[in-house]
Amino acid sequence: MSQLSETKAFAVKLKDSQQLQRSSSGGAFTAISDVFLSRGEAVVSPVYNYETSQTEFVLYDTTQVRDEARGSKYMQSYPLNIFREAESWLKSNDGNLLFVGVGCQADGFRRYMESRRLRDRVTIVGIICHGSPSPQIWKDYVKGKEKLSNLNFRDKRNGWHRPSAYADINGKEKSIQDYLTIFYNKCALRPSCYQCPYATTEREVDLTIGDFWGIEKALPDFNIDGGVSLVLVHTEKGLEVFEKIKTHVEWKESNTKDCLQPNLIKPTDRSPRRDEFWSDYQNHGIQFVLRKYAPQPSILRCAARKIKGIVKGVLK
């Protein structure tokens, strides 16, 4: 695969406001996957399975399944037999295939396709990744929540910079922010994530996507309402795909220095409380660690926050 002499960086935002609102950031995944689905080709990406309470890789060719796949998944995605399924699809069809996954999965897929001499027929997209937590923690978290639906880890009702996590549980919308707090406090990640070799702007995939954090300084004139995606283009194939999405997105070129964020510079740091966290979890269970490591804000703090917001609104 022909690598570009220098990785290109772009800010991207869907023109379709409804599709944008349903996306975690600027909708790069939707725009890129539409290129393949519109041609009757296939996409492989993680989809949450409500029956197994886990995220699994799925091969599909419809926008209906793609829409289910849309959105950040803050848990490990199971590959199952997806590499062989993708190989079988490519050997049975004339079209190309898109693969989307975090860095380690994307690179594994690349190596597999190279070994099968099918690399030229796949476009591989890596996702900027904070790390993968233990899947058992999520399964314990949702245990007893019999009717879980509409899972959304990046709801943008309060804006892109202040996303919230919600799910419908037994017919009522409830916050699952405490699980997200556990994810971000760095205690629950796999040991390998603290040594991730893919926390860099230089990757052997075609494209890398994620949030364009810091765009206010990098591209202050770009419209950030609703969220903005960062798209890194690494190969000629990736550049061809990017050219095809330009008519459907607002976009502006940046560079790899101005788009840097923690997980494009180095892996997530290992929390100094990780051993303590796992000891607590194994000895006392999920509810104990939620109370200890993701405490809920007090009523007074919540009230103070609301008052502060009201005052800001009045001053404006």
Task: Give a quick set of tags describing it.
single chain; 316 residues; alpha/beta; 12 strands; 37% helix
Give me the secondary-structure topology.
Blueprint (H helix, E strand, L loop, with lengths): L2 E12 L2 H5 L6 H10 L4 E8 L4 E7 L2 H7 L7 E2 L3 H11 L4 E6 H13 L6 E6 L7 H8 L5 E8 L8 E6 L2 E4 L1 H8 L22 E5 L3 H4 L10 E7 H10 L3 E5 L8 H4 L8 H11 L1 H8 L5 H17 L1
Helix pairs in contact: 2-9, 11-12
Describe the structure.
The protein has 316 residues and is α/β, with parallel strands linked by helices. Helices cover 37% and strands 24% of the residues. It contains 13 helices and 12 strands. The chain has helices spanning 17-21, 28-37, 63-69, 82-92, 103-115, 135-142, 177-184, 215-218, 236-245, 262-265, 274-284, 286-293, 299-315; strands at residues 3-14, 42-49, 54-60, 77-78, 97-102, 122-127, 148-155, 164-169, 172-175, 207-211, 229-235, 249-253. The strands form 2 sheets. Strands 4-3-2-5-6-10-11-1-12 form a 9-stranded mixed beta sheet, sandwiched between helices. Helix 2 (28-37) packs across helix 9 (236-245) and helix 11 runs antiparallel to helix 12 (286-293). The radius of gyration is 20 Å and the shape is globular.
Concise structural overview:
The chain is built from 13 helices and twelve strands.
Share of helix, binned: 25-40%
Report the major sheet: 9 strands, mixed
Distance between the termini: 53 Å
- Poorly predicted runs are 298-306, 310-316
Q: Over the alpha carbons, how many angstroms does the gyration radius reach?
A: 20 Å
Structural class determined from secondary elements: alpha/beta
Write the element-wise H/E pattern from the N-terminal end onward: EHHEEHEHEHEHEEEHEHEHEHHHH
Strand order of the largest sheet: 4-3-2-5-6-10-11-1-12
Oligomerization category of the chains in this entry: single chain
Count of distinct strands: 12
Strand content: 15-25%
- The chain-level mean pLDDT equals 93
**Helix count?**
13
The shape is globular
